[in-house]
């Protein structure tokens, strides 16, 4: 299974670093797409538990090791090699692929959403299969939790945009909330920023920064937002890791519910409800059921099925590879 390596010992080879960087590229690209979660990508590609473990390694013991000059110990506690490779990929993916993803969403939205729909649908099935509750009662609890999570995710993605109140405190809070969603499968941090009215501001700074066009206000805004992200990341990652370690089946059921509930936002067939709005980031779309004469119906269905099958085949191949390694 592509998810089965979440409890395996960390691999610190150069080949693993390149793979981790590639995962980071995918996560960075996903995080800038409203409706797709980078946490979903991490879960699909099997680095989710290691990511939570590495982030939650930032504690007082690590700080003590840093202050005492024990750099090797601090790096081991933080799994710094993994975080550096993954974080580098996320930054490059978010910066370099932002334009491409924006182009695909503006000009090929139905097919792009079809691909994400198929990927997340198959991944949600695989995460649900991992629950393995110990009893029938636990299975019922997991199902109920998953359904509630799906309804909650659905309620989130159906919300309209809000007018941001402004101010550094609001920016800090938005950073903390968005980063929690970015590492939570099924809830898009980018979409939450869109609802909170800060998506265009944040992505605008990210686009201007590599070009050297960022102003002092841009840098201050990015610093405050990053601080909020850091605080939210450290606190929320600990909670998620604790839940996965002690209540694995119910937690995975909730994650599965988030992923399935978010599929509403990625339904390929949507009509533009705000035709007078020019900026894609501010547009609202309403899903509809396509008819047999829909021009892109066949392409969208085939794309979703191909992506869905790709995830299932990759999971099957990874399971066989691991079984072969264990037998050897």
UniProtKB/TrEMBL annotation:
Keyword Metal-binding: no
Keyword Nucleus set for record: no
InterPro entries recorded: VCA0040-like (IPR007163)
Transmembrane feature ranges: 21-48, 80-98, 110-126, 138-157, 169-199, 219-240, 247-267, 295-314
Top-level taxon in the UniProt lineage: Bacteria
UniProtKB keywords: Membrane, Transmembrane, Transmembrane helix
Residue ranges that the Swiss-Prot or TrEMBL entry lists as coiled coil: none
Pfam families per the UniProt record, alphabetical: VCA0040-like
Protein name, entry field: DUF368 domain-containing protein
